[in-house]
Automatic annotation (TrEMBL):
<feature type="signal peptide">
    <location>
        <begin position="1"/>
        <end position="21"/>
    </location>
</feature>
<keyword id="KW-0732">Signal</keyword>
<dbReference type="InterPro" id="IPR051057">
    <property type="entry name" value="PI-PLC_domain"/>
</dbReference>
<dbReference type="GO" id="GO:0008081">
    <property type="term" value="F:phosphoric diester hydrolase activity"/>
</dbReference>
<protein>
    <recommendedName>
        <fullName>Phosphatidylinositol-specific phospholipase C X domain-containing protein</fullName>
    </recommendedName>
</protein>
<dbReference type="GO" id="GO:0006629">
    <property type="term" value="P:lipid metabolic process"/>
</dbReference>
<dbReference type="InterPro" id="IPR017946">
    <property type="entry name" value="PLC-like_Pdiesterase_TIM-brl"/>
</dbReference>
């Protein structure tokens, strides 16, 4: 297995007591600590340790082979990525952020004088990233920053620390291992620096250099698609991760930016809280992305959940309709996720996505998207990012069924 060999190179030197990804007690295979353990077995233990370290963010690894975990098999290699419908998850790493998680990290967050809020303000998912992969999710929105010691890159949502110990590098090995088990699939990881973490957190040269090093290890060079500024075919992307760079390396020499693969969506050009962003990611070719990231409805003060849901739904449906009818050979990226915490009362991600009981009889954005998507059969919608994608149960299967695998597409202007 390729990832085992790479792991031997990058992690074995620092291997401590091995731990299996399953969390089961570990027992030395050779009583008395015999040195007869082969290098391949040791590499397996090293892989198990790294997967176990990443489990609080990635999930406990298990190999699953079913129709949703391999849905890209049905599409031809020459299918253009921009012609596909790719489901994604917004703030994917927050699935394990709970009151218990928050309390377990109190001794860490108190070191940085972090003020804790209701966990519902930060949690945007309920299922692990491993489950997301097996369910068919292919695009992951990941938010990183230094931990409270300014030492390692970990995952945050604002001041919500997801884990102090599961590093970005640990979690990437979960994606590498999953691709080994599902070589027909193509993944897209969006990395964005998360501000407002600790009072002294900065996107400085140290953060940028460590991210660069993480994304250019021998393992990363094998598993990340090594192309820059272009989006090609599914065949080129299979078994690989396409890096979506929602970050700048502006504190480092230009070499670093030029040496990273992927597609650059500079934060400087990503209009904040906008229902319609036009972002040129390749000035030489004119490669353009059309993006909807209206994450906080600009509703009147003291607005209701119903109003906030409707405002967000209108923006998302308008952008998806645009994807289905215009610019057939450009990238479309829509976010069905949103929140409005400054409202009174606050509107959490869960309320926006799933509704607020009897106060929103039509449900949230997710439920209301279902009849809309039913009218989009055969249409190219591009990337659509969801919160709590598994609710209602028909949402993701419906989205994955919209484009048949026979190559027919329904977009104005033709292909």
């Amino acid at each position: 297995m390729a990832v085992v060999t790479l792991l031997t190179l990058t992690a074995l030197a620092t291997l401590a007591e091995p731990a299996l990804a399953s969390g089961a007690p570990w027992h030395h295979p050779y009583p008395g600590g015999s040195s007869n353990c082969s290098s391949s077995a040791l590499a397996e233990f090293a892989l198990g340790k790294v997967l176990n370290d990443g489990a609080p963010v990635f999930g406990v690894y298990a190999d699953v082979q079913d129709t949703t975990s391999t849905w890209m098999k049905a599409y031809a290699d020459n299918t253009l990525i921009v012609h596909m419908n790719l489901p994604g998850t917004h703030d994917a790493d927050t699935w394990n952020y709970s009151t218990a998680t928050q309390q377990s990290l109190d001794h860490v967050t108190q070191l940085a004088n972090i003020t804790e809020y209701n966990v519902a303000a930060y949690r945007c998912q309920d299922l692990s990233m491993l489950t997301m992969l097996n369910d068919g999710i292919r695009v992951f929105d990941l938010r990183y920053a230094f931990d409270v010691t300014n030492t390692t890159l970990v995952f945050w949502h604002g001041p919500g620390l997801v884990s102090e110990t599961a590093t970005v590098d640990d979690v990437l090995y979960g994606f590498y291992r999953w691709l080994d088990d599902h070589p027909s699939e193509a993944l897209f990881l969006s990395f964005q620096y998360e501000g407002s973490t600790t009072p002294y957190g900065r996107n400085d040269a140290g953060v940028q250099l460590q991210l660069f090093n993480t994304l250019t290890t021998p393992a990363a060079r094998q598993y990340f698609l090594q192309t820059t500024g272009s989006i090609g075919t599914l065949g080129e992307a299979r078994g690989k991760i396409t890096l979506l760079k929602r970050f700048d390396e502006d504190m480092l020499p230009a070499y670093y930016t030029n040496a990273l693969p992927g597609i650059h969506f500079s934060p400087l050009n990503w209009t904040d809280n906008s229902p319609n962003i036009t972002l040129v990611y390749n000035s030489s070719t004119g490669g353009t992305a059309y993006i909807e990231d209206y994450y906080q409805p600009l509703t009147p003060a003291n607005s209701t959940a119903e109003e906030n849901i409707e405002w967000k739904l209108n923006a998302t449906e308008a952008h998806i309709t645009m994807a289905a009818t215009t610019h057939p050979n450009e990238l479309f990226w829509s976010f069905a996720s949103s929140t409005n915490l400054v409202n009174n009362p606050p509107i959490t991600p869960a309320i926006q996505a799933l509704g607020n009981g009897s106060l929103t009889p039509g449900g949230g954005v997710n439920q209301r998207l279902v009849p809309f998507l039913e009218g989009m059969k055969g249409k190219r919608l591009g990337i659509v990012m969801f919160d709590f994608y598994e609710q209602p149960a028909e949402l993701l299967p419906l989205f994955l069924s919209l484009l048949p695998a026979n190559g027919s597409r329904g977009v104005a202007g033709g292909y």
